[in-house]
Design a protein that fits this description.
five-stranded antiparallel beta sheet; alpha+beta
Amino acid sequence: MAIREILTYPDDRLRIVARPVRDPTAPEVRQLAQDLADTMYDAPGVGLAATQIGSTLRVVVTDTEWRQEGAERDLHVWINPEILEFSNDKETFEEGCLSVPEIYEEVTRPARIRLRWLDLDGNRHESEFHGFEAVALQHEFDHLDGKLFIDRLSPLKSNLIKKKLRKRKKLAAA
């Protein structure tokens, strides 16, 4: 079990665009997925992208149900995820992020997505997701492209939050 440090805004590494995984079956990819899962469950969160722990590989883990009462863990590993299609209908959910601690805002995103990805055995999958799971996946995949959910807010709201977070980080370092 390896719990890794989660990078927080304004860390510049959160803006790095992750690179594709060449061999999803490689031991280091398995270890990265395990570290991501351990870190996500410990945080606790429902998703974590490799960029959030300083890796530049396109790997995400999610478990959108485990925090609900009576639910068991149902970990999903997404390697080189690619959103093929977004629905025109939208949904708004309150989002938070382990890399943007203590900030929660409503974000509107496509309600459904069609997705292609690889698993840890190198198998290719394609499926459609909707509701909270679709929103969570879009949120995590944004991280792989160097984007945070606060970037999806109005410029005014986004700038206010970023200023607050920079000030908080500066005070914590003092």
